[in-house]
Amino acid sequence: MVRLLTNDVSVGYGDVMIVKHLSVQIPDQKITTIIGSNGCGKSTLLKAITRIISHQSGSVLLDGRDISKENTKILAKKMAILPQTPEGAAGLTAGELVSYGRFPYQNGFGRLTKKDYEVIDWALEVTGTLEYKFRPVDALSGGQRQRVWIAMALAQETDIIFLDEPTTYLDMAHQLEVLELLQRLNREQQRTIIMVLHDLNQAARFADYIIALKDGEMVKAGTCAEVIVPEVLREVFQIDAVIGRDPRTNKPMCITYNLLKGEKQQHEKNIPALYAHAGSAY
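Structure tokens predicted for Iron-enterobactin transporter ATP-binding protein (282 residues):
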């Protein structure tokens, strides 16, 4: 089943096109990960799908409706997004920040209900941030702040959650905690999760579906086994990857890789030295 899709979407800034005629389908109630090199359009695509920025052409459809024509509050009850570099928490406590996730459910008076407070505490608890509820967000570490922002997205209680590099600033243990939390929300509550990740092995471990982008165009979309393969990674990242199997999940994993561009540059750099050496020898 597909509730969310893009049809021939192009997105740019001025005359520069970042996403080019992209048509993707997001599997419902699955975890989808978008991968690609820096500047390939991953974050831009997320912003266009969630209506943070406008697209120049094409359409984004949710439940058969064009999101550009959808009521903002109705859309906010269906989709939540955690940006790559969230801002705007200055002077707020963690609990106050998470309460912003309840905005779509508030009436004209903007008062929080008992249900709102229950959801806020739940979101803080599942992200391991309940102890920071009354602490200023500015006083938290980078990892603690990131988990509070994720709690705000969860408090929005949407079926679909977008996260742009949700493991940024987190150490390895907290990265795993966040990704396992998202996986649990997907499996137990059937939330549709769409996220951008840089770590290929994390993407392969937690995703059901992967979209690989290069220069704003889709190179490959499919299961982890279909996307995490040497030929796709060669085209997307310019690396020569050795792919094995994760012994715990049996999913593909990148064991090691060489940088193809770097090898070529090093080879070309060594050519004059080789000629000089050959000349001196003869």
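The chain has two domains: 2-78+158-234, 88-155.
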